[in-house]
Amino acid sequence: MTAGRLVFVLLALGVFVLDRVTKSLVAAEIPYGTEVSVIGHLVGITNVRNSGAAFGFAPAFAWFFLAASVVVAVGLVVYVLRSPSNLWNDAVLGLVLGGTLGNGYDRIVHGTVTDFVNVHFWPVFNVADSAISIGVVGLIAGYLIRKPSAS
Fold first, then answer.
1. Full-model pTM
2. Secondary structure element (H or E) that encloses residue 140, with its range
3. Where does the pLDDT of residue 28 fall: very low under 50, low under 70, confident under 90, or very high at 90 and above?
4. How far apart are CA 120 and CA 116, in angstroms?
5. Alpha carbon distances (Å) from 31 to 47, 56, 103
6. Distance from C-alpha of 149 to C-alpha of 86, rounded to nearest angstrom
């Protein structure tokens, strides 16, 4: 196993475990629909559920996002296994896979996704959403950095 593939697996597993632990703690400690202030009125931990995509978008399409989670997870694994190993790509794809598995697990087991990080000027989100977002930004950044200039 290459270093890139090992990083892919470890990051995906780490994100999944961290996502499960944080969602379980929030569900156990914070009553649904309430918030605990962390940094004044700026950041709180809020126990809410989301049937839509990341950050609460399109809540009426829960079945679509469950199917998309399965397709994305399988596609990422196949892509990483078939592509030449690249540490950067494998790392950011590991973040995306871990987040996809975390939210996918919630959709399968609970029918909704637990969101809890409440930065009051942004939709409530969770560890999985953050990992997916960071991974996608990392993919775009990697593409832009490596993109040959047209000269």
1. 0.86
2. helix 127-146
3. very high
4. 11
5. 7, 19, 20
6. 21
- C-alpha distances in angstroms, 128 versus 13, 98, 105, 121? 11, 7, 11, 19
Position of tokens 């592509």? 83
Angle at which helix 127-146 crosses helix 87-110, to 10 degrees, equals 150
Mean pLDDT score, 40-44: 89
Active site residues: 115, 129
Lookup: tokens for 132: 């997916």
Amino acid 13 reads L
86-138 pLDDT, tens per residue?
A: 899 999 999 999 999 999 999 889 888 999 999 988 889 999 999 999 999 99
Catalogue the E-assigned strands of 19-121.
Answer: 35-39, 43-50, 113-119
Number of Cβ within a 10 Å radius of residue 38: 12
3-state SS assignment for residue 40: coil
Average pLDDT value for the chain: 88
